[in-house]
Structure formats: C-alpha cells, structure tokens
Amino acid sequence: MPEVSFFSGDYEAPATISISAAADIEYLTPQQIAELLKVSVDTVVRKFEQRRGVLDLGSSESRFTRRYRVLRIPRTVFEAYVIEASVT
C-alpha cells in the first residue's frame, strides 16, 4: 500500500522544547513575585494566570471542590511583564 502524506513538502514540525532545556528555565512562585512587586499574591495570580508560558499545576474545580492554584511563572515571562508595565 502506498504512503499517503497529509502535508505539503514545506511542512515544518511544531516547535518543541527538550526536557533538558525545560530544566534550565528558572520558575518563580507567585509569593516570590508578590514580594518583588510589593503586591498581594492574589494580584500576581490574576495578572499572570492567562499569560503564555505560565504553568498552572493546580487542580480544576468540580461541583463540590474548590479550584486549587499552583502557578509557576518563568523568569522570562516575569521580566517581560515588568518591561510592559514600566512602558505604560
């Protein structure tokens, strides 16, 4: 049976990050960022929860249990936020 290709010849594989490269990324907790920015932890969670690159390791909310948030924010995302906030 002949091979069938679903992609044209110029298809590029999506960008992936290797495990060793992911281990080199420094992650900050909302508590650490709250201390640096002198704001509450809740404010940090609100500002960073929807940003690209932020890891949400918490549990989802169900009918009888509350959502538990555990965010890990890459230092690069935090630095981009500080630059963005200082410009406006």
Note the topology.
Layout: H1 19-23, E1 27-28, H2 30-37, H3 41-48, E2 55-56, E3 71-74, H4 75-87
Antiparallel strand pairs: 1-3, 2-3
Walk me through what this model shows.
Helices cover 39% and strands 9% of the residues. It is mainly alpha-helical and 88 residues long. It starts with 18 loop residues before the first helix and ends with a helix. It is globular, with a radius of gyration of 19 Å. The longest helix has 13 residues, at 75-87. The chain has helices at 19-23, 30-37, 41-48, 75-87; strands spanning 27-28, 55-56, 71-74. It has a 3-stranded antiparallel beta sheet with strand order 1-3-2. The chain has one domain (23-87). Helix 2 (30-37) crosses helix 3 (41-48).
Neighbour order of strands in the largest sheet: 1-3-2
Major β-sheet annotation: 3 strands, antiparallel
Helicity, in percent?
25-40%
Sum up the overall morphology in one term: globular
Query: Structural class of the secondary structure composition?
Result: mainly alpha
Helix-strand pattern, N to C?
A: HEHHEEH
Number of strands: 3
Calculate Rg over CA atoms: 19 Å
Defining traits:
single chain, 88 residues, mainly alpha, three-stranded antiparallel sheet, 39% helix, globular
Q: Quick gist of this model?
A:
The chain is mainly alpha-helical. The protein has four helices and three strands. It has a three-stranded antiparallel β-sheet with strand order 1-3-2.
